[in-house]
Amino acid sequence: MTEPAAAPEISDIPPSMPATAVDRITERIDDLARVVARQAATLERLADEAKSKTRDERADSDAPLMRDLFALHGLAQTFASTSNSEPDLQGFAAMARRVERMLVERGGQLVTPFRGTDFDPATMEAAELADTDDPASDRTVESVIQPGLTIGDRSIRPAKVVVRRYRGAPAEN
């Protein structure tokens, strides 16, 4: 068997090839590596933009459906909360859960802030004000009247909430 030949090292380069030629080849390889890296980054960015554009177009085309599903979700919750029979209550609650899943699958998110959450005017509407004696509770959510709906970064329907307002202690004369 023959032994494989060892890879030539820089010192093995024949003297007929000047060092500047090796430097130029090395520099050219480095340049090509940078070009390939830039092209890979550009392709990745373009793929991300295409996914984002597709997602946005889908959200725009689904917006009327999402509004209708959101209204159906509200009706199912109302029927579940006002039902007098246990089977009806379970049926409407199951329907509300299923509609909520459909909303989430299409990129929607129900906005149901917890009590004490800071009021966010981008996703909430102050339907009522409630006085509070605690300055730390100023501009926080007291309760949710109706949940809201967001799709991506857009608020389709703001959540209707009761907001606490600190009025301060009345001044004594």
Describe this structure in words.
The protein is an alpha+beta fold and 173 residues long. It has a domain at 107-167: Head domain of nucleotide exchange factor GrpE (Nucleotide Exchange Factor Grpe, Chain A, domain 2), CATH 2.30.22.10. 49% of the residues lie in helices and 20% in strands. It has helices spanning 19-82, 86-105, and strands at 108-111, 124-132, 141-146, 148-151, 154-157, 159-166. Strand 4 and strand 5 form a beta hairpin. Helix 1 runs antiparallel to helix 2. The mean pLDDT is 85.
Task: Chart the SSEs and their pairings.
Layout: H1 19-82, H2 86-105, E1 108-111, E2 124-132, E3 141-146, E4 148-151, E5 154-157, E6 159-166
Parallel strand pairs: 2-6
Antiparallel strand pairs: 1-4, 3-6, 4-5
Helix pairs in contact: 1-2
